[in-house]
Amino acid sequence: MLHAKVLRSPHPHARLLTVDATRARQLPGVHAVITRDDLGGLDAVFGYFIKDQPIVATDKVRHIGDPVAAVAAEDEATALAALALIEVEYEVLAAVPDVESALAAGAPELFSGRKPRGVVPPYGTGASAELWPRPNVCYEFRYETGPDAVWAGCDHVFEDTFVFSRMNHFHLEPFVTVADARGGRIEVWTSTQNPFPLRKEIARVFRTEESAVRVNVPFVGGGFGAKHNCKTEPVAILLSQLAGRPVRYCLTTEEGFLTLSQHSAVMTVKTGLRADGTFVARESTVLLDAGGYTDGSPLVAEKAGYRIPGPYRWEHVRSSCACVMTSTTPAGPFRGFGATQATWASESQIDMIARRLGMDPYELRVRNLKALGEPFMPGESGIDSDLVEGLDLVAAELGYHERGTRPNRGMGLAIGFKDGGGVNKPAQARVKINATGHVFVSAGSVEIGQGISTALCLVAAEVLGLPPERVSYAAVDTDTSPFDQGTNASSGMTVTGRAVQLAAEQARDRILEFAAGRLGCEPADLELVDWGVRQGRTVHPLPPMIAQVFGGTGYEFSGDGFFKAPNSPEAPLDAPCVFWEIGWAGAEVEVDPDTGAVTVLKLVASGDVGRAANRLVVRGQEEGAAVMGYGQALFEEMRFEDGVLVNGEALDYRVPMAEDLPASFVSVSQEQRHGPGPFGSKGAGEGTLVPVAAAIANAVHDATGARITTLPLTPERVHRALRELPGQSS
């Protein structure tokens, strides 16, 4: 096996004039080198909706860290030595390091002339989108419903702007691929969340059939949305093809910072309401910083634009969300994508409005929350959680209604809201039971630490009446595993879980039909219990029956399942939401008026999982998500100075440590049992991240009267806001 390393651009924006790898190719131990001259015969660009990111740069570099050349050598040290021998000549161009500069009149374009090709997916009522609507904007999503005239009936109209910071996914396992591309076949072992779409993209890039591509996915050490689509795979595959050897390409943590991030955003929200606090209209403009390449930005745009109204009743909604290209690290999906940005703006403004009107923020929310079963938007599915019940639970746990008035201490609430289960996501599954009653669940959901392999096995065990220890989850391999669109949008339990449930039910029915034939009764007279069939009060073991018919070699029963939400032209995103993932958060804080330091005294987070397959796994997911939101609120921020990332390594990038956790941290997993998944379940793992930042900012506002509209809530920002309060000296 060879090892790959990549030469990266030192410039945020530059034209690539010459790349000379002659000396690198001659270095002993080097077996293959990729430059733009080695891309012939390939469709050498990739991306979600827009194909714009090359395997290595061809005409320009568009952010610091953009791959320019790659080397495969016998060890990493030799590969790094070879990179130092590659000579590159750049023509440095003006950078566009942020949204404001990228949208300025006459700003240099990252993609000038003919734009990269792309698609706009089908949308339903009220929704639309456009590719490359204006310079440095690759995609713009729009949604509108209800008459614009209702603004005339508003007694109050408020408009506020919020800034959402950029985070790194910070998955502990890096981006890594081993590729073996010999004999006309491509096989990869890779850290990915969507093996089947990845297989399709690899086949397109390398101009081969999907059947010639095999993607194996072992356990993945975290992804949080980053490990979708091509990352390390194309470089490893092409080097393997050129060298005729397997190649391992593993990024360092620092390279991961240069590969993908969450979107920062600037959001302006205009809200109109009546004098009694009834919401009437909301219009929003969201500008996402997409970075140097589009990656999953269009997906995030449609979610941010669609979710920003929140779980409230409106007579009119209009929103637009634009993906702005900047000469910084590309941005893509991040846990709760779109909802994190939208909720920060929406839930912050709701608190601000309540305080402007002299209302309790809790009361303002309750007055306007949608009811259980009420459609989110026209043509959309109904809300499948009791929103007030969840809010009351968190408020009670926090002691919100009993709070007193103490200097520099305050409490805040927020509700996170997102459509879950993926848009138009299909999933297949297969359940196989051998003669001794051991079960193998096969599906395309990737275990990334969220416990999906455990949950899906528990679903099969429940249906088949077997103890969980008899059930195993098969390795994910695109040659043999049933199709799944990807491990995202908390879809594992509701979409893949339903497919597993249906597969297990089919297998169960076949077993009962077989046993009924042997016992001379109807299948309905039998019940499957611990690999036997109960007939009345008698349990008949299955192994002797199987051996009698099929001999000592035995037999395997199997079932197949498929699930997908139906399409509907009335649904704004072309298919009704599978389920609504909702998180409630409450925070009590104390603010030091001299330093601006925020101490979270108590954090309460809760999500509704419908019904938990494994309560411990659910708790771990919800607490992990809440701590990620806590990091977003107080610590995490990728800091760029003129397009240069200044904290792009583990020691400089500040994440919450154990000593940073609140003195009291409470999570409550609700099981309201309204979910569409197996046995009333819903997805989990994202909802409790989404509202935490707004809840903490709302608590700071309650404690001090100062409103911070930019994340994270650093002591410097809080101190500045305190100094700007009326009556405070600067």
TrEMBL record:
Residues 1-94 form the Aldehyde oxidase/xanthine dehydrogenase a/b hammerhead domain. It comes from the Bacteria. SMART domains: Ald_Xan_dh_C. SUPFAM superfamilies: CO dehydrogenase molybdoprotein N-domain-like, Molybdenum cofactor-binding domain. InterPro entries: Ald_Oxase/Xan_DH_a/b, Ald_Oxase/Xan_DH_a/b_sf, Ald_Oxase/xanthine_DH-like, AldOxase/xan_DH_MoCoBD1, AldOxase/xan_DH_MoCoBD2, AldOxase/xan_DH_Mopterin-bd_sf. This is Xanthine dehydrogenase family protein. It comes from Streptomyces lycii.
